[in-house]
Amino acid sequence: MSKVDGIGSLLAKLDRLGMSAEEGLSKAIGKQTKKVQATAKQLCSVNQGELRNSIKTSVETEAGRVTGTVYTNKKYAAYVEFGTGPVGEQNHAGISPEITPAYSQNPWWIHESMIDKKDAEQYRFFKIETENGTFYQTHGQPAQPFLYPALKSNEKNIQRGIEEELKKQIRKAVRND
Fold it and tell me: For the chain, how many structural domains are there in total?
C-alpha cells in the first residue's frame, strides 16, 4: 500500500470550492488503481486467461480514508504470485519483501480430475496409473508475480497522477464558479 503525502492543501482547496475532497480523491485514486490493474493484467501469466480476466479493482472510502485495491478472487492466484513447494521456494524473485511464504517441502499428487491432461503433459509431471485413475506428482511451481510488481512499477507515478487529477478537478471547479 502506498501513502500519498503532501496532498492536504489540494484537498483543502477542493473543500473550499464546494467539492467533496473524498469524492475528488476517490476519483483520482480510482484512475491510478486502473493503471495498476492494467499492468497486473499485462504481467499475469496466461494459460486460459481465467486469472488475467479475474483481476479487478475497488475504491472504498471509510472514515475519511480512501483506499484503492487491485485484487483477484481466484483461489489459486496466491500460488501463481508466490510459487509453490520447493520449486517456488527456490524461484520467488519479484514477490513482496514483506511476505514470507511457507513452502511445502514434500511433493504432492494431483488426480486427473483436478488438472487438464494437456496441462499435465506440458509440465511433464511424473504420473502413475491406478485403479482410481491417473495421478501426477509435482514439486511445485516457480513464483510468477504479477500483483506486487504491478504496484511497484507504478508506484512513482501514482502520487503524481493523483496530484494531477486533483489539480484538474480544482481548475474545473474554479472555472465553474
Answer: 1
Q: Do 168 and 174 form a contact (C-beta atoms < 8 A)?
A: no
Q: Residue 123 corresponds to which cell in the numbers above? A: 509440465
113: in domain: no
Considering only CA atoms, which of 115, 55, 106, 62 is closest in space to residue 84? 106
Copy the grid coordinates of residue 116: 487438464
Q: Identify the domain containing residue 35 by its residue range.
A: 8-83+144-175
Nearest to 29 by CA among 165, 145, 170: 165
- Rounded to two decimals, the pTM is 0.80
Tens of pLDDT, residue by residue over 62-119, are 887 899 999 999 999 999 999 999 999 999 999 999 999 999 999 999 999 999 888 8
Burial of 169 (0-12, 13-18, 19+ CB in 10 A): buried
Other C-beta atoms closer than 10 Å to the C-beta of 137 total 12
Report which residue type is found at 54: S
Q: Do 153 and 101 meet the contact criterion of CB atoms below 8 Å apart?
A: no
C-alpha cell at 157: 507515478
